[in-house]
Amino acid sequence: MYELIIENNGILYSPLVEGKIKWTTERKGSPGKLEFNVVQDKYLNFEEGNPVRFKKDDKNVFFGFVWGKKRNKDEIISVTAYDQLRYLKYKDTYIYAKKKASDLVKMIAEDMHLRVGEIEDTEYVIMHRIRDNETFFDMIYDALQLTFDNTKKLYILYDDFGALALKNMDSLRLDLIVGRDTVENFDYSTDLDNTYNKIKLSYDNENTGKREIYIAQDSNNMNKWGVLQYYEKINEKTNGKLKADTLLQLYNRKSRSLSIKNALGDVRVRAGTSVFVDLPELGDISVQNYMLVEKAVHYFSDNEHFMDLDVKGRDVWS
Questions:
Q1: Which domain does 18 fall in, by range?
Q2: Whole-prediction pTM value?
Q3: Which of 153, 250, 281, 300 maximizes the CB count within 10 A of its CB?
């Protein structure tokens, strides 16, 4: 049983839904999205910007705002609603120093008048950063990327039923098993698109006037795959050798992607959570471990709830 409520000027509407409700979350760069069709009647009256609340079995699922409407001749209104992460797609210029990624999130939330929930301390201090004419999403993920590269700690930004949240990936691990008995189908693929076996970092040291180069590489995999080089110019003061070694450890492997189709639905599963995947026969590997959900698409109807998941190994940032 689900509940869909639209509020307009203090009036709550529980419209008649036609077809399925679709809820989509992605780990990076996209707001949560709720899509549904409602039947127009003489009472229903709502417009863009109105709050939308969706619950399943009394559990909070989505809180956002009507963003778009489309009507057809049968008086069916197709509605697209986004959570407040949608406001992070707008641009600005920020210059900041000696701040953590969690500080940046709070600063942007205050400037954009966003409601804030639990923001975990990301610990790593970014010495100096200039982000010119960029989306707030890009600014935040730049800071989270720097944090990850230097600490190997992955933080997830998401909207928790109307409150901006930032949590370590380990805080979002679910006690849920996704396996052959609960999945209709899956697609498994491997590639070298996000693989690097040579890391080269450069830093222009203003004190010495010299360019410092830091290299970490795996000769065996270079002979096997060719030279797959990652190059970055380091702007902030950091431990270049440690960062190079960390990046090599993270990216010196082929990428594995797994798409799960029509699994039994669980509203706790959203992009950024980790689920235990039990698929022992996937060609070159046996998957029986936790994997990170990159994208989750849920489909709700009166008596059914299924979900499609894109998952990756828990140590992959891409």
A1: 2-83
A2: 0.85
A3: 300
